[in-house]
Amino acid sequence: MMVLSSLLFATMSVCVKLASASYGTGEIVFYRGLVGALAVGILYRARGGSLRTPVPGMHVGRSAAGVAAMSLWFFALGGLPLATASTLNYMSSVWMALFLVGGAIMLGGRRVEGLLVTAVLLGFVGVALVLQPSMDATQIWPALAGVFSGVLSALAYLQLTALGRVGEPEERTVFYFNIGSMVLGGAIAVAQGLGRHSVRGVLLLLTIGVLAAAAQMLLTRAYTVGRPLANAVLNYLGILFAFIYGVLLFDEGISAAAIAGVVLIISAGLLSTRVRSRAQEPEDTRGRPAAGG
């Protein structure tokens, strides 16, 4: 599920990059949410599921973090090479480890682990290597957006597993996330101004919505029933898919420094998941999702 989810998200990012030539970030986020909400809501209701939730506050928090992260990522995709924007977004595992272990230190006096410090340093060095060969002065804001999209993605993943622990079905979680996308995306779109539709543009928006809904369902299911450590490792395949798409479709060059940066970021993610596995509750070793995985 994680491998297929990563492939679908990478394919969606290609469509977002193409659509960004005609539509603003807010409009893309809005239509992604609209298509996803309709698809998931109709299918779930047809199967007899209920969209009423006993934990609306948790959905609001998850949607706010997730939609903000997605909006920043879409903005980064419009201004950076595909692989660069995707790599920054995939730093979420490093940030997740920092949040988890940092929270454990504040609450229980746990000391800082050397692996976490190493992971954070490797991640930042990797980001510097990835950005240096492929970013100019006009791309500073998209680059910062990509970095912060990773931070917010980490928060969203923590909330995603928490929703799974309280028994929320993945269809309901994805549905409310898409509703949040419509609300925030629509507000941004109104502020930015609306683009002009074309047959190509409409097809891209529909494809983005369908791919995103399918990928989100797979991702949510994986984090609900799977082991967080394995999910985080497999999630890094998205960087590989993004690099392949960037070279084949956008003629994006790959320098030795950029490759080294990606390797460092992946290494940082692997180290951070190791730290996370130590910080999680004992039941995670029996295959159930931990509170913050």
Describe the structure.
There is one protein chain. The protein is mainly alpha-helical. It has one domain (2-286). The chain is 78% helix and 0% strand. It is built from 12 helices and no strands. Helix 1 runs antiparallel to helix 9 and helix 8 packs antiparallel against helix 9 (199-225). The longest helix is centred in the C-terminal third of the chain and has 27 residues, at 199-225. The radius of gyration is 18 Å and the shape is globular.
Key traits:
293 residues; 12 helices; mainly alpha; 0% strand; single chain; disordered C terminus
Number of individual domains: 1
Distance between the termini: 16 Å
What is the overall shape?
A: globular
> Mind describing the biggest β-sheet?
none
Low-confidence region ranges: 281-293
Give the H and E element order: HHHHHHHHHHHH
Helix share, percent: over 70%
In angstroms, what is the radius of gyration?
18 Å
Number of helices: 12
Give the structural class.
Answer: mainly alpha
Question: Taking all residues together, what is the mean pLDDT?
Answer: 79
User: Strand-residue fraction?
Assistant: under 5%
- Kindly state the number of beta strands: 0
Précis, in short:
Helices cover 78% and strands 0% of the residues.
List the helices and strands and how they pair.
Blueprint: H1 2-19, H2 25-46, H3 56-79, H4 82-89, H5 92-108, H6 114-131, H7 140-165, H8 170-192, H9 199-225, H10 228-235, H11 237-250, H12 256-279
Helix pairs in contact: 1-9, 1-11, 2-3, 2-8, 2-9, 3-4, 3-7, 3-8, 4-7, 4-11, 5-6, 5-7, 5-12, 6-12, 7-9, 8-9, 10-12
